[in-house]
Amino acid sequence: MLNKKSVDDINVNGKKVLVRCDFNVPLDADLNITDENRLVAALPTIKKLIGDGGKVILCSHLGKPKGEPKPELSLAPVAKRLTELLGQEVKFAPDNNVVGENAKAAIDAMNNGDVVLLENTRYRAEETKNGEAFSKDLASIADLFVNDAFGTAHRAHCSNVGVADEIRAKGGDCAVGYLMQKEIDFLGNAVNNPERPFVAILGGAKVSSKIPVINNLLDKVDTLIIGGGMAYTFMAAHGEETGKSLLEEDYKQYALDMEKKAEEKGVKLLIPIDTVVADDFSNDANFKTVGRGEIPADMEGLDIGEKTSELFANAIKGAKTVVWNGPMGCFEMPNFAKGTVKVAEALAELEGATTIIGGGDSAAACNQLGFGDKMTHISTGGGASLEFLEGKELPGVVAADNK
Ligand code: AMP
How confident is the model at residue 216 (pLDDT cuts 50, 70, 90)? Predict the structure, then answer.
């Protein structure tokens, strides 16, 4: 069980709290924020720290400035929008050094409950290398540290790991914010101590990118469902024709090994029994459904078939914990989104179950198809959520104090 100190466990009154947020938002050519979900998601932690009388110093990366100041990747637009969302000034500290004279002057002028936002942490080359100088600089301006950036939790950078070590070394608390806490509760703890039956659904393009996830989940689940592009490698491993479908020849033996592991562990492993095949990788392609082993040599599978959708939906019924990572087909094209919709519906209909959606494409699919508010938890981190499901320890999580 991961039991990390949270913002509810620390006393910030009158203290300088450095908060690592995920403000990596998309900007258009005029530097307008085109999707502010990440800003809105950060508000509960910021409001809590303001309410408790902390001097709240926010930091984040934005894009990839590659270790040097890039005006188009400044966090200035974020400070402006956060000011509106919070209803109180978020003072931006423009500073090419991130923690230079401007930042220090802004922090010196803070009263309890004030908020300052530092410049893009990746303006400093040491940031992504967890270099000591920048970690020390960040720690020098704060008494306590709060990490609320799950998207970078699988990386050890100055602003989420190095700074925590430096703050702890001088006796300060290192806690997680509400967003991080939720990710830990669901992707960490619910997956490791699941209420059963526990069903995992894996899809997406490639087996190769999900190997450690399949392997780890086979040790925990009662049922493992495999759909999406990765299913064809399992079919091909049994000598079935897969036509022009996605196929990773080198992973056929791995697919057989995983089937064997499932059998040994008593895990029910399901792969598609029919497939929607198309004559082109396009929504306008001609398409039809064929049974297992019947994919024509000149066509490619782009979605699970209707019978498979039924099979998977039935396997999900009655589950108490479900984890889903990766779409069942090319959901970006409406003609090949039906299998993914059917699985999302099956999850949405579950009563009293915990439904956890891994970040990246599965989160996008859920939100885009209108099921966002029907799930217990949709992860905000792509790579980080995958590494959690692989059973790895995430440096950004490890760096926070245990309770
Ligand atoms: P991943 O990042 O591995 O989770 O893969 C997500 C991508 O897999 C999405 O963009 C889907 O369009 C794609 N995908 C899912 N099923 C298939 C399929 N049968 N053929 C090709 N691509 C697929």
Answer: very high
Closest ligand 1 atom to 330 CA? 12
Distance (Å) of CA 319 to CA 213, 345, 350: 20, 14, 7
How remote is the CA of residue 326 from the centroid of ligand 1, in Å? Answer: 7
Active site residues: 38, 206, 360, 383
339 within ligand 1 shell (Cβ under 6 A): no
Fold (CATH) for 187-389: Rossmann fold (3.40.50)
Contacts of 292 (CB under 8 A, 6+ apart): 235, 240, 272, 273, 274, 275
Instruction: Report d(CA 303, CA 264) in Å as an integer.
Output: 29
| 302 CA from centroid of ligand 1 (Å) | 8
DSSP calls for 199-230: EEEE-SS-SGGGHHHHHHHHTT-SEEEE-STT
The sign one gets for the Cα dihedral 178, 188, 199, 366 is positive
Structural domain spans, the chain: 7-179, 187-389
Check if 211 has its Cβ closer than 6 Å to any atom of ligand 1. Answer: no
pLDDT of residue 264: 98
Which atom of ligand 1 is closest in space to residue 302's alpha carbon? 19
Which CATH fold topology does 7-179 show? Rossmann fold (3.40.50)
Tens-place pLDDT, residues 125-175: 999 999 999 999 999 999 999 999 999 999 999 999 999 999 999 999 999
